[in-house]
Amino acid sequence: MDICIVTNHRNSAMFSNNLIEANHQLGNNTYIFELNYDKNIQDERKRLLEFIDGNNIELALFLNDFRFPNKLYFINEDIAKKVDCRLWVWDSIHDVQSLGNHINIYSNIYSIEINDVIQLEKYCSITAHYLPLYAGPEFYSSPRAVTDVQDLDIFFIGTIAGSKKRLELLEAAAKVAYENNYKMLVLGRVWHSHHWYQEIIGKFKFGLKYPYLSKVVKNKVLSPEEVITYYKRTKINLNIHIEGHTCYNCRTFEVMGNNNFLLSDIQNKYDLHLEELVHFDCYSDTNELVEKIKYYIEHEIERNKIAYSGGCIIREKYNLTNALKLIFS
Hints:
By secondary structure, the protein is an alpha/beta fold.
């Protein structure tokens, strides 16, 4: 089957390789159509229609219900008449009650948030399906062995700026790392750095507010290949969900894929067969995070046992190939 995946630049840069490879494993051809928000919405719709015709596309998967700056939703009846359109919501539908009739154009809808599924049924009479963003092939194709060197004790990567929850938890983790001489590294978007003086000023202000976290944080974004390497080098990979999300994010599955240990804040598992102390472990607050960091640094055998079990369930069940198989069936 020839499939078109409609996405934005950010998701394309991060996930295209894994989407293409996972779909290839299903025997499908994948074409990535990247939306350009600087263009007129009518021109972008026309470009997609021409893309569909030119590549004999049979199905289009939209990775989010895209809206342009003029507040118009991208999908319309003209596109739906050309091809079977399906939606996979990656960023959550924040206000289901404000959706227009366009939402009925999609033949199937999936979301990483169970609340979206509930709200779509309640307000739109639409039967949607809960489907997390599982790990792509890159993240589970080279399982870590217990003999591999782990030179980092604690690692986190993600957008930090603007998330009070992440900042507070990471400051607490950095404090315990400093007090116990653990090696910790935090990477992500932290402050603006478009100019050299913004980098200096941003780092200075951040250090005043978060004295421990500032010692271990770097204002840096990695490629997926680099992220995979850091996961494998780390004894405890932290996961901290952003405010507003209630179900487990993609990092949950990506960390575990290669037998890496995951310590995550507690989210709604819904029907996921993930067990704490078996596949990964969780914390409910700052105190529990600190205590579990100290515990798992000292208990290597238990940590590796959980990590191996987590990797097995990702490779067998919770991976991107199985997700796409469900969507395209």
